[in-house]
């Protein structure tokens, strides 16, 4: 029976610099705008996103989010407050009642709204440099939302009219002992990542050989899984 979930949660980026930054400083929380399946309604909040997809099914994910990533143990992620999102459709009357007005209750704003995700929608597709329709449900997304983050509810606002948000620099703590995979794009990235891991392991008192053994290339995954 094919497994559709993993004991590892993956965070992806499109740059080796961002990958190294996350290894050194923890996962960066982007101040993200999230469209809801209600006309011109959405919200914005800092978050770090993960997917619950086994490596055998993760190849398409590369084309959307990049070929650099970190996989961490799901048990550790949950201890840090990472939670699965709730996928919703336009027919969900409960969600319409919650976010169809200018203000929401504090509990909803803090504990429910940041974990709502539209079942299907449009997103930028890196491989083709354009927006494409995407079934977000296939990502099995989990999220870390900083405890002090504030949700900005955006009602009846088109995305092109949403002002840019200031990034606040929130991070999710990363214990390198909890890393299961470090994914780089290709073999030529090895020299760079190995050079960065040497002082990092010395600083954190982590066995270098153990962390290096977690490094794998996206090309290996595409070829062998």
Structure description:
It holds the Pfam family AbiGi. The protein has 225 residues and is an alpha+beta fold. The chain has one domain (8-224). The protein is built from 8 helices and 15 strands. The protein has helices at residues 16-25, 59-65, 74-79, 93-99, 106-111, 190-204, 208-212, 218-224; strands at residues 8-13, 27-28, 30-35, 42-51, 68-73, 83-84, 86-88, 116-118, 120-125, 130-135, 141-144, 152-154, 171-172, 179-184, 215-217. The strands form 5 sheets. Strands 3, 4, 6, 11 and 12 form a 5-stranded antiparallel β-sheet that branches. The protein has a 4-stranded mixed β-sheet with strand order 1-5-14-15. A two-stranded antiparallel ribbon has the order 2-13. The relative contact order is 0.23. The model has no long low-confidence stretch (mean pLDDT 90).
């Amino acid at each position: 029976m094919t497994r559709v979930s993993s004991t590892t949660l993956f965070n992806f980026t499109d740059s080796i610099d961002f990958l190294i930054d996350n290894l050194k400083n923890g996962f960066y929380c982007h101040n993200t705008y999230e469209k809801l399946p209600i006309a011109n309604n959405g919200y914005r909040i800092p978050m770090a996103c993960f997917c619950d997809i086994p490596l055998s099914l993760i190849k398409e994910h590369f084309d959307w989010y990049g070929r650099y990533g970190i996989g961490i143990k799901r048990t550790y992620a949950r201890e840090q407050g990472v939670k699965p999102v709730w996928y919703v459709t336009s027919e969900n009357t409960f969600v319409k009642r919650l976010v169809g007005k200018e203000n929401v209750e504090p509990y909803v704003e803090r504990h429910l709204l940041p974990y709502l995700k539209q079942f299907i929608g449009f997103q930028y597709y890196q491989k083709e440099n354009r927006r494409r329709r995407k079934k977000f449900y296939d990502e099995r997304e989990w999220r870390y939302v900083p405890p002090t983050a504030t949700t900005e509810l955006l009602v009846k606002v088109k995305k092109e009219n949403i002002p840019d948000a200031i990034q606040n620099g929130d991070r999710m703590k990363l214990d390198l002992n909890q890393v299961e995979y470090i994914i780089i794009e290709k073999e030529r990235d090895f020299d760079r990542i190995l050079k960065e891991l040497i002082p990092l392991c010395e600083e954190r008192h982590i066995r270098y050989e153990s962390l290096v053994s977690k490094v794998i290339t996206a090309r290996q995954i595409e070829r062998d899984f």
